[in-house]
Amino acid sequence: MKVSIDLGACCGQARCYAIDPENFQLDESGYALRASFEILVEAEDKARMAVASCPEGVISAE
Ligand code: F3S
Fold first, then answer.
1. Least enclosed by CB within 10 Å: which of 16, 37, 40, 46?
2. Is the dihedral of CA 44, 61, 28, 12 positive or negative?
3. How far is the CA of 43 from the centre of ligand 1 (A)?
4. pLDDT, tens digit, for every residue of 24-55?
5. How many CB atoms lie within 10 A of CB 58?
6. What phi, psi does 9 have (nearest 5°)?
7. Do residues 1 and 38 touch, judged by C-beta distance below 8 A?
8. What is the mean pLDDT of residues 49-62?
9. With a 6 A CB cut-off, is 5 part of the ligand 1 pocket?
């Protein structure tokens, strides 16, 4: 699964990181750090919860 984050629209809610810190990294200001990354199959369930957790809806998965 590939995750994409609209970094320009991220406002630092950090819920993604709270759920899945291994995959959803934040910069020193608390904003999402990586625009896109692959999720290992065995880690997809947690990553999907992180995707759904963003109140701004700026994370997508395919
Ligand atoms: Fe940003 Fe949403 Fe995560 S606003 S820090 S992508 S929960």
1. 40
2. negative
3. 19
4. 999 999 999 999 999 999 999 999 999 999 99
5. 18
6. -100, -10
7. yes
8. 97
9. yes
Instruction: Compute the Cα dihedral for 61, 34, 8, 15 and give only its sign.
Output: positive
Q: Residue 23 in 3-state DSSP?
A: coil
pLDDT at 12: 98
Q: What pLDDT is stored for residue 59 in this prediction?
A: 98
Give the C-alpha separation, 59 to 45, whole Å. Answer: 15
CA atoms in the 13 A half-sphere facing the CB of 42? 1
Residue written as token pair 């910069």: 27
Q: Which of 4, 11, 25 to mutate to test the pocket of ligand 1 (most atoms within 8 A of CB)?
A: 11
Task: Answer for the pair 20, 50: CB distance below 8 angstroms, yes or no.
Answer: yes
In the beta sheet, which residues pair with residue 3? 37, 61
